[in-house]
Design brief:
This protein has 14 helices and six strands. The protein is α/β, with parallel strands linked by helices and about 350 residues long. Strands 3-2-1-4-5-6 form a six-stranded parallel β-sheet, sandwiched between helices. The longest helix has 20 residues.
Length: about 350
């Protein structure tokens, strides 16, 4: 509890002076002003995070939170619960989507067992298990308030540890059968939008299973009556250990003043929880892609962010993060290595039209 409180209290906004200096340099580079679009915005936003105009990423990692969800017994997923453990183990072998994309981006993957219903004999999986999955939110609260806070603190601890090891760019991933149900429930409560409009089919449900999933989520919300003004209440009643852990990752990234990337719908739900706890975390968040799951667009609008990519992705795992890592590093390369007009001996700059407002 103490770590959670201290983290919330220590988050401060982006450095406005560095942002101003960032734009001054960006607009002086040998290009029409605004011509590199979002790359310019990314580079300047990171200047606001670090306080330095020129930045370089040294080490990058996606933290993957794995956990099972008791609501799976209601038939909300086409996949068996055992798949969570199998996928979690496979993450460490570099053979999944997050693995191969991270290898390509020269990024690491940290896999955390925060609540898988099983045991691992794999030293590459960090054991932070709170319980062997949550309870069935369609019958009772998914977890206690204490467990929700403990899960958030696991995320904080993991980011703190990696920052101490020199990592300065983070991604967020997950594994957990049934977690599109918990994420849809959370987004529905915070948005006030009917859960039927938020929930997606997840991993290939039939139409009949999809209708059941909608009914289960609606029943869970009606039964638990989560208070949308109390993030911990929402997480504990209808959330998952993975979502709570990732929420902690976002909070810790803001505390440590390092950029962190949002992946798909589960990561979006976690980002929304962190934003509701402290809106300043927005200054440190970078969306990757816009998930095809229905709730993702709402989360982006609510936080006030725009996804950089629209690739019709819905894999999860954190698979969008290494792609976004490459975009972020490209943006920083522009800021650091591109010559200014003066350095490039371009003196007649009347053709450099400011299109930023467009």
């Amino acid at each position: 509890m103490e770590l959670f409180k201290k983290t919330l209290e220590s988050i401060t906004p982006a450095n406005e002076e560095a942002i101003e200096k960032g734009w001054q340099r960006m607009d002086s580079l040998s290009k029409p002003i605004g011509s590199l679009g979002k790359l310019e915005e990314i580079a300047v936003k990171i200047a606001g995070i670090t306080g330095q105009v020129k930045n370089k990423i040294n080490k990058k990692v996606t933290i993957v939170m794995s956990a099972d969800n008791g609501v799976l017994e209601e038939g909300v997923s086409a996949c068996p619960q055992e798949l969570t453990a199998i996928i979690t183990d496979n993450y460490t072998r570099g053979i999944t989507g997050i693995g191969v994309l991270s290898n390509y981006a020269k990024a690491d993957v940290c896999v955390v067992d925060i609540g898988v219903n099983g045991e691992f004999n794999n030293p590459k999986i960090v054991n932070k298990k709170i319980a062997y999955g949550t309870k069935n939110m369609a019958k009772e609260a998914a977890m206690s308030r204490e467990e929700a806070i403990k899960a958030i603190e696991v995320g904080i601890e993991m980011v703190d540890k990696h920052v101490s090891e020199g990592y300065d760019l983070f991604g967020t991933g997950e594994a957990g059968m049934g977690n599109t149900a918990t994420s849809a429930a959370i987004i529905s409560v915070f948005s006030g939008i009917d859960s039927d409009l938020i929930v997606g089919k997840g991993s290939g449900l039939t139409e009949e299973q999809f209708i059941n999933k909608k009914n289960v989520i609606k029943r869970a919300i009606e039964l638990n009556k989560p208070d949308k003004n109390d993030v911990i209440d929402v997480l504990s009643k209808i959330g998952g250990f993975d979502i709570a852990g990732l929420c902690g990752c976002f909070l810790a990234a803001a505390k440590n003043r390092v950029p962190i990337v949002i992946d798909g719908i589960i990561s979006c739900a976690a980002a929304l929880c962190a934003y509701k706890l402290n809106p300043t975390v927005k200054d440190f968040m970078f969306p990757s892609h816009l998930s095809v799951e229905a709730g993702a667009a709402y989360v982006m609008n609510e936080i006030g962010l725009k996804a950089n990519l629209n690739l019709d992705m819905r894999l999860g795992e954190g698979s969008g993060c290494p792609i976004e890592f490459l975009i972020i590093e490209s943006a920083l390369c522009v800021m650091s290595d591109m010559h200014t007009l003066q350095e490039a001996s371009i003196h007649n700059s009347e053709f450099l039209v400011d299109i930023r407002e467009n």
